[in-house]
């Protein structure tokens, strides 16, 4: 399909924020280096329950559904906190909010090492999810203070922090084996505090915009919080804010869910130990991170609105092939029965998963650059909205994966659901494309 026509008027198509015009140098370097580190650590903390799943399920006697709900807790809390934290970062500064969110997850890491009951782990998981505020604030921070000429590259490098899930895959099994699983969250405290300290010492916020006249208190107007809430509701009713955010949310949410689901799936399907399964899941997370950088670079060079179609189509083909479970066929042939058996070996599975990860990363990197180009002054609102939708989608997936496997009796039910979800997402894209064509005719 042809690229989408220009969909925003001159007034609504905002230019990048004024802070983005800051000259490249020390500030941009600090932004591009420290923000992805914070991103990586938050993602690494979210993999705690997934990689330590065997020990947790044994000690707590958890069933499949209960464990899936536990995996969903950080993503649910992250979805609910992303948009408010992004808007708060616009008012107070991204560094301040990132720093606060990193410090906020520290007591919950400590609590996980001491918890003994399932409700305690659920609450601790919700606490870890508040770290998503650092992701949303960091997105606003990078968009505002990163190098303007290479905004896609800066946003792609920031998104590459999703590779922090691979850090969890690599370190957590080793820590658990050497010191016991309860030591793993405690050892995460040191790097979290270290990055928070670096942000405090070396990063700085851009100029916080002064309050507008609409935000000031006036006897003839509702209180400021009501004014802001009504204005936010009116702006969220604008479909233009949702167009790119919905597509981005699929790639973001699908990656989050797969990053937490893959180790257990590899254990069940190929019989690996948890450590072996986690190591074999690393290429997928690294592929998504590399794809984010590539997608940002491509979007810097050209307004690749049509790229989302090609990326979605490629991911759809990969999901279709990954959805095939092992099966056998018996055919009555001319010379007797023919028996066919299909079971994808590990190299075929990874050969589909890794290129799909690159495509998902390209989709995220290019879409976030497009969001930045279309909604530069509204990056907090639209970027936070994209992270919120993606987090809600990701929180839904682990229980759906488990229930689908139980109802269908197929271990690949997760890929089947993602395939169906991407079909729906592409249908929304088609409807939106037709709507934009009608508006321009």
Automatic annotation (TrEMBL):
Its main location: membrane. PANTHER family: HIGH-AFFINITY NITRATE TRANSPORTER 2.3 (PTHR23515). Belongs to the major facilitator superfamily. Nitrate/nitrite porter (TC 2.A.1.8) family. This is Major facilitator superfamily (MFS) profile domain-containing protein. GO terms for molecular function: nitrate transmembrane transporter activity. Residues 1-21 are annotated as: Disordered. The chain crosses the membrane at residues 29-54, 60-80, 92-112, 124-144, 151-172, 184-203, 241-261, 281-299, 306-324, 344-367, 379-401, 407-431. Residues 28-438 form the Major facilitator superfamily (MFS) profile domain. It holds the Pfam family MFS_1. One of its GO terms (cellular component) is membrane. GO terms for biological process: nitrate assimilation. It is a multi-pass membrane protein. It is found in: Membrane. InterPro entries: MFS, MFS_dom, MFS_trans_sf, NO3_transporter. Gene3D superfamilies: MFS general substrate transporter like domains (1.20.1250.20). Keywords: Membrane, Nitrate assimilation, Transmembrane, Transmembrane helix.
